[in-house]
Amino acid sequence: MKKTSVIILSGVVILFLVSWLVKGASLSGEENPYLQGFLTTFAAFLTLAVFSFLYRDNPFYKFAEHLFVGASAAYWMTLGFWQTLVKKLIPKLSDGLANFFEVPTEEHSYWYFLPVILGLLLLMRLSKKGGWLSRWPLAFIVGYTAGINFVGYLRSDFVKQVSSTFVPLLIDWQGVGHFFSNFSLAIDGQFVMMLANVVIFVGVLCGLVYFFFSKEHTGLFGTASRVGIWILMITFGASFGYTVMGRISLLVGRLTFLFKDWLGLIS
Amino acid sequence: MRRQLPFVLVFLSGFFMIFQYFVPHQKSEFVYEFLLDWLTIIGGFAMALGIWSLIRVSYDRIKRQRENWGYSVITLTGLFLMMFFGITNWEDGSFGVYIYTAEGLSNSMFVHFFDFILIPIQATMFSLLAFFIASAAYRAFRARSVIASLLLLAALIVMMRFNPIFGAWIETVANWLMNVPNLAAQRAIVIGLGLGMVATALKIILGIERGYMGQG
Amino acid sequence: MTYLLRVLLTLALLTGTAVFAQGEPPAVDTTLVDTTTVAPPAPVTGLTGKDRDNDHGHAIELTWTPSVDDLENPSGARSVLRYRIMMWKPTEAYRVDTLRQMYDMVRSNYAPIRVYKPLVDSALILIDQGMVDVSALPFEVLLPEGINRTDAPAEMMKYVRKALQDTLAAMTAQVDISKDSVKVFRSNFLAAVESLPEAFNANGPSSGHGAWDSVGAEVPGATFFRHAGSKEEVSPDFLPDYADLYYRVDAATSDPAVYTASDVCGPVQASGQWYNSGRTVVLISVIIFTILTVVFVQQARRGKELYVRPLAGIEAVDDAIGRATEMGKPILYVLGLGAASDIATIASFTILSRVAKRVAEYQTQLIVPTYDPIVMTVAQEVVKSSYLDAGRPDDYNEDIVYFVTQSQFAYVAAVNGVMLRQLPATNVYMGKFYAESLILAETGALAGSIQIAGTDEIAQIPFFVVACDYTLIGEELYAASAYLGGEPVLLGSLKAQDYAKALFVVCAVAGFLTLILADATGAHWLAQFKQWFMVAD
Amino acid sequence: MSIFDRLMRLDRRWVFLFLTAVCIAGYYVDYSIPIRVTNETRSIYTFIDSLPPGDIVFVAIDYDPSNQAELHPMTYAIMEHAFRKNLKVIFTALSQNGPGMADQAIRDITDSVSLDRTYNGVEFKGREIRNGIDYTFLGYKPYYAIIILSMGQNFRISFPTDYYGTPLDSIPMMRGVLNYDNVACLIDLSGGNITDAWISYGQGRYNFPLALGLTGVMTAQYYPYLNSGQVFGIMGGMLGAAQYERMADNPGLAIDGMRVQLPAHIVIVLFIIIGNIGYFVTRRREQLEGR
Q1: Residue C11: is its pLDDT beyond 60?
Q2: With the C-alpha atoms ordered B202, B208, B213, B215, is the resulting torsion angle positive or negative?
Q3: Which of B137, B155, B162 sits opposite D239 (nearest CB)?
Q4: What's the fold here for domain C312-486?
Q5: Range of A174's domain?
Q6: Per the confidence metrics, is the pTM higher than 0.95?
Q7: ipTM of the modeled complex
Q8: 3-class DSSP state for residue C315?
Q9: Contact D272 B156 (CB under 8 A)
């Protein structure tokens, strides 16, 4: 077991070195060909390492995973540091600090000491005694967004939906005779368009019935609820099927990287 | 007192935001935007908590030589290297405070790390979805019941919408499925969801829902 | 890498000439265009302006009757191709524009200039000391052809020296860009903005102290224009409140020189309102919903039994914890990618507290990797107090809940690792999920775990439904949270939600019927019902 | 374990392997994928194909990089077709990031048309595509509704110069080209609202032949215009682009994409079917045994 691991590892290392040298040589003429060759090879190695996870968990995947976690955490922290703290906060508080960080100064606003205090209170979590103070910033954040969400969703997900459910049942209605004499199953025909509106209307009502919690789903109510879950399932199936194309494109993107940018097998 | 005061703050900030929604005046909008700035700034401080937790867990694993502790060394190496590149100015050979330019963080090692480590792994993780969508379809699309059959059938029709073996009708049916029942179901979910969120938000503001503060 | 080019570009900006030039479009060479002279069209009539309702101010709405010669009017000359909306701006307003541009420029150039000036300074010293190698300079020098000669380095250096000196002179002489000058420019600008309303009030079009400025255009046939300015002073389209504004609409033809101005309308003033009447329907909903919730919560508090239909996902949670205990395997709880303030995440916290309590009672292992530092903080608090409630505070340790990273797929990579290495008996996904939902659920299925999911992200529900054993669809997540929260009071709100849904059904059916009736009887007023539910943005 | 049990419990790594193989094969194996050409795409192709040399086609490139995957192939296919037929092209880009898209397409197609090629059995000699003679790129201007409208009077009202700053009157191919009356047809490739403006402000008022290239999700809602005759053709998403490429006998980005998509979809469907066969047979057997 130990021996095979060593063989596999050294195989990968040798392949990596070969790829690096070959890629570097093929890029001669560009700036820093061997650095570029190394970076491309390393990116390809990481790509394959992640794909190897599909076979089973293995040291290469573990390597990529741990590197990714560390580097990405630092990436977001660095970005947050520069973009929020340095760019947004510091110019509001101190010219000296702003000059130190080379960001343009702005008009001071001492109100901005409050979020600093709240931010520091949040850090009190790290202390055993002052931990309870960290609830203050939390209360502010949660209350603030709850207020926004309360009115926001009441408007967008409730009031607005009422008016958009008002769809006409009759489209271009010119009497029963006209309807039957011009009957067609075409997608833009009168019948299909009207059917669509009926399906939408009934679908919304049945779907809502499915989401009733305080009433037993029996009798007529139960039937409506069952129709509701059917419509939900048809929708889920269709959305699932619709997404496949986009996901395959993602895979093709990675394969293109491997075969074109790294191996150069496709021109 | 320690326990109750935060809920007063929740109520006050929540109520203010509801009030603000109905007041279009510039002064009310000003406060709204101002508070929004606060949120991002507090979030900036929270980063430190996260990084601290990551370092502590990794360090702990290394110190106690737990299983796979070697990989935690890699995590910490990646973390510190990226941080180092992110706050130093590599270009002039001076390791002073990094200069923030309009183009963003332009330390070339930082950019290399991003382009050749973060991006490839991220894109590959994302592309795993192509495989998982296939395996999930194979594993779960079994006509066990009416509900499962409907799920299966709708998925099959939409997936075959451009298959030349079938006639043009399949495209029509697939489009109809995406436009009509889909719309109905989405709306039903949205309304229920909206009410669920509204109710939870109200419970939070009124102090009925306290789970998020640790059992209040 | 610092390029002289960039210094020179900055320089071009600094010399200020470009700044003050007005951006007129190049004139059309009319000689080749087929413009048989167009007759001046009839003017726009009946121009009126008023403050826009329900806003923060800074906007005016204009209405008018189109010109007789409008393209849309078949009986006229059809020569009016568009309407130009003109606003009178007193000279002071143009001055504010200039000051704004200067402030903008100084502000945006401050940081680079601070960096480049020392570089140029040191380069000049090097050249004066007799250095002749251009490539040794700390920046790349772009030399014009004819100067770039290696055979005469001294000549070349002379040119470089001159160019650098010019740059430096311009930097320091034209506009002094320093920390203090940014301040001075800002205060000058703000002072001028402050006095804008006075200037507008004192100098109308009749005073001749100012000029007309185009603020927008409309297509033929249009009768309405909304001049929505910005409320930010630094924005070029800032429009002051409480200032007398005058407008005019020009009927323009294909020949830029031929147009007819309408009568001037004004003065009108923009102002902010204290109540948005377009949102009254939301206010009514807020009141109804709050009353419903409070009433049912009170009922529950008084001990009234409330029926809640069984949810498969909820029952599965308890079973799954038991199963994990039997197998001696951990439980993985994923809170998703939401922030601590997202409602889905808050619902998830409540479910987590129940799971953690059971886990503590059964002495099973719990793993909670988190994506957001604040979510981690809250989750730690929640789990800690659940262990306390279960009477096992000593079993709690800080490593149950830990932070991974704030990168979507790095987080997924780490959670995948946990699933395959620690083989949890049960995976619970509750909260906000995006594209990673299926990666998580499939890896979990691969590891043979029982999986329970709940999310309010509609796009991700199909994947959870397909790949998980139990899925809470949309609102069921909130119902589960109320149900598992353990307090009957929380259930009261479920009842309120159901009443609101019933209200919705009533409104929708009523709307449906009114539309049919309106169609059948031709009664127009019935169709108005829909308008009641329209909300202003 | 019977074969059917195995079908039901196939290791998913087989699924992964097949999918990868099929995707790579789709790239390498030069098979021709049968693409069903719909009438709405065919009419665009035949319209352009029937134009005499020298006619002008107006191509509006109104999409951003986010819709590039679906719409760029259409631009390429139409441009190649038009230039090979010795037609002239006017471009506009009325979405903010459109000029970048147009610029890229012009560069690529100029290179490609300089080579000798055979399409549908007809040999085309490579030729140089020159700015101002074979095409004019008018560029981007804000307020697309007004631009579309004013171009109905004269292109010069909105675009006194082209994208590169040359006055329109000193561009050879624009001599005597005043407005939509002088172009043979207009093709709008868009991923957003601009399409509506082309229909109501452009076609609705000036009555020129209009065809649309849309993203997959948008397509369904524009069919009514096809039936009312306001639009003579629609290309929907990557599929529509592939259909055009098929008719032009010029397999490009879209057909390459479909060559991978189709087998990948079929593989997934086959696995679903295999799983279900296994499931039904085993269940039937269990029922029989249970009896």
Answers
A1: no
A2: negative
A3: B162
A4: Rossmann fold (3.40.50)
A5: 168-262
A6: no
A7: 0.86
A8: helix
A9: yes
